[in-house]
Amino acid sequence: MEIFMVDFLVKYKKSSLNPATNDFKTVTVSSLTAGKKTILFAVPGAFTPTCSQKHVPGFVSKAAELRSKGVDVIACVSVNDAFVMEAWRKDLGINDEVMLLSDGNGEFTGKLGVELDLRDKPVGLGVRSRRYAILAEDGVVKVLNLEEGGAFTNSSAEDMLKAL
């Protein structure tokens, strides 16, 4: 399976960017995966309990170990706007360990066919992404761990370490 090329709005925390401005950078999935070993994982939503307390922090804490095994890029996708993703990055204290990617309109999520309909939930999340973790090499998916519903059983950083 090849990963579809869809643009994402990403705000990097780099010293060359003024943190007081909204300098969002657009990157494509192909630029994150071409000629690289990439882990792309998705969460149902920024600031949600499992995503904020387990899933993303797990990848942040294991980033050095993943990179020591040849991973070039670690990126998290969520159906949230870029402003929310930047606020979440700051809240979690993430530097450059994991890129937080905004799939604001759910285009990438839709093309992968991994939508999670949460419109019936009382917190008003709408349509989001199922939780998953992909290991891709040069844009080709080598491992896809796709969760059912909002479960968190096989898409962790530890699961990706086992797959490497």
Automatic annotation (TrEMBL):
An MF annotation (GO) of this entry: thioredoxin peroxidase activity
PROSITE patterns: THIOREDOXIN_2
Keywords: Antioxidant, Oxidoreductase, Peroxidase, Redox-active center
GO CC annotation, single: cytoplasm
The UniProt record lists the keyword Oxidoreductase: yes
Pfam families, sorted: Redoxin (PF08534)
EC id: 1.11.1.25
Thioredoxin domain boundaries: 6-164
Catalyzed reactions: [glutaredoxin]-dithiol + a hydroperoxide = [glutaredoxin]-disulfide + an alcohol + H2O
A GO BP entry: hydrogen peroxide catabolic process
Family: Belongs to the peroxiredoxin family. Prx5 subfamily.
Function: Thiol-specific peroxidase that catalyzes the reduction of hydrogen peroxide and organic hydroperoxides to water and alcohols, respectively. Plays a role in cell protection against oxidative stress by detoxifying peroxides.
Self-association and partners: Monomer.
Official protein name in the record: Glutaredoxin-dependent peroxiredoxin
Organism: Brassica oleracea var. oleracea
